[in-house]
Amino acid sequence: MSSNLLLSETCKFKLEPSGEQRLILERLVATYNDMVRKCLERALELGMASRKKLQESIYKELRAAYADYPFNIPLIRSSIWTGRRSTAI
User: Fold this and answer.
1) Cβ neighbours of residue 9 under 8 Å, at least 6 residues apart?
2) Mean pLDDT for each consecutive 10-residue tract of the chain (89 residues)?
3) N or C: which end of the chain has fewer CB within 10 A?
4) Which CB contacts under 8 angstroms, 24+ apart, belong to 29-38?
5) 3-state secondary structure of 31
6) What is the rounded distance in angstroms from the CA atom of residue 1 to the CA atom of residue 17?
7) Could you tell me the residue ranges of all domains in the chain?
8) Are 77 and 55 in contact (CB under 8 A)?
């Protein structure tokens, strides 16, 4: 299939999670918030304004602490500097 023939479609829907799913999602969001808080604390502590330096200083620490979670530092750092929420789970 040629790349110029690809079609993308967006659908909007609402899910009602079960009690167990809600707990999992709440835990995931709380963990994400904790990761962002640690990134901000590190940036303030070291007076960092560079995304790359922040990632270099904290990536391994966060990766080890949250090995069981979906992980993507670029999404975290992007949300810190731009104020956007990540939609990746």
Assistant:
1) none
2) 66 83 87 89 89 87 83 53 48
3) N
4) 31/66, 31/69, 32/76, 32/86, 35/62, 35/66, 35/76, 36/76, 36/79, 36/80, 38/62
5) helix
6) 36
7) 18-82
8) yes
